[in-house]
Amino acid sequence: MDTIKTEVYNILESAIHAAVDAGELAISEVPTIPFSPTKTPEHGDIATPIALGLSKQARMAPRTIAEIIVKHIDTAAHAIIRQIDIAGAGFINIHLSDNYLYDTLHTIAAMQAAYGTCEKGAGKQVQIEFVSANPTGPLNIVSGRAAAVGDTLVNLLNAIGYNAIREFYVNDAGGQVQRLAESIDVRYRQALGEDGLEIPEGGYQGEYLQEFAQTIVETNGDTHLRLKTDERVALFRDKGIAHILGQQKASLERFGVNFDVWSSEKAIRDSGKPEEIIQLFQEKKYLYEAEGATWFRMTDFGDDKDCVVIRQDGEYTYFVPDAAYHRDKFDRGFTTVIDLLGPDHQGHISRLKSLVKALGLPDDWLEMSIIQQVNLVNAEGKRQDMSKRRGQFYTLDTLIDELAETVGEQFAVDVARYFFLMRANSSHLDFNMELAITHASENPVFYIQYAHARCCSIFEQGDEHGITPKPIEEVSLKRLTEPMEHELIRKLAEFPSIVRLSAEAREAHRIPHYLYELSGIFHPYYNQHRVLDPADMEKTHARLILIQSVQTVLKNGLTLLGISAPTSM
Fold first, then answer.
1. pTM of the model
2. For 2-96, CATH number?
3. Are strands 46-48 and 91-96 parallel, antiparallel or unpaired?
4. CATH topology of domain 441-561
5. Residue 379 — very low, low, confident or very high, per pLDDT cuts 50/70/90?
6. How far apart (Å, rounded) are the C-alpha atoms in residues 382 and 378?
């Protein structure tokens, strides 16, 4: 479709120039010609409102401009165009020839699993950092949404020719892991019978730490009590991080997300790179001393206030290792870095942008996007509150477990990923458990998977009747004359541009929407038209090519989402 739009664009542009040369249009320049989808096939395949855009410059009515442009298009000279109409105030609706429909099926047959891919990225290196949950507790469902989005965006970018990788930044240093260690210490001593202990302020209350402390007691008894308090807390910090990070990795693997790189904040801090950042900022005179702390002149970069980078106790705030980590990303050769942040990091965006600018890195090098909150909604429409510190949170594993009880393990992951991906990142997501476990067409992921399974069943039925699909070169595609068949092919033709636009806009939700719309065309076609007809084998083979194409695109799209394409349901 992108290739077709380019050809149509050139035809329209040439027509406008011809009208200008003929003195029929008085404009100084031809603006970019926009396209918009038509609402129904009756209105054509491609529409453009260019006449409306030229109206002010040309000082003419849009419909008159449209008539002038169309007059300078010789449809007989352009095989791609079957008919041109003018609609409404001046929209130009273009009906493409049937040949483009058949070319689409030939392209799908030739490319198979590669249909939808391109080389636009030219191998440029892109890093997407996502999830990056603190190693202080199990992954919650917000992290699950980030995992689904980040994983899919990597798939999309790789599909259009980038060399994209997945990276998880482990926040294994700083105050939060110290409070984790102190919380484990309290639970450990409580497990050994010590009374009168309370979790420290800002510590972690979750039952998961009680269970972990009990395993330490079962393995090591009271031997750790012989250590000095600071030594014991340091030991529990390392043990706690290793244990929780191991759980997070297992949860992500179960969810079908495997990171290429695991980076450590502690390793960044120990590398000396934060000191290099401080030295660089001092040389650029971005730092000053006040109130016993070191401050960064954030106001020089448009922020409303400066920020502390070194506290009174000499400890770095998180901005310094963050700046060092992003400098490390740049040094590794990434041409674009994308950070997917949690809903509580909105205020972090402008400051990190300022720090990156202070490092002298390109303005467009770093992209940041917020993955908004997920609300778990039960059958009564009630939402569950979540707080890791209070121990009131709904984990990703719990979600998959509950889904698996009804739909099975594999479909549980499929459903979770689809539901996490079906809304734009910037939108809050209500995860409807009742709908998610519904074995019916109302459940959108099953609706799509069932379309793929139906395609597979047609070929199984064909085998049973001795009908073997022919190579597309031996098939008369002109037998595909039904309006619904043409509608299906038009939708299939959109897939490569949908993939490209989804990747470029970083909008993974476009893919599930597209697959749902494609399935919405396929299911009625399947119900209303007989594919296998021994009395008309020429039409049968043409329709089998169409079904193969639908099957291919559904599978390719589901694969991008990390969702299975079952052959039966």
1. 0.89
2. 3.30.1360.70
3. antiparallel
4. Isoleucyl-tRNA Synthetase; Domain 1 (1.10.730)
5. low
6. 6
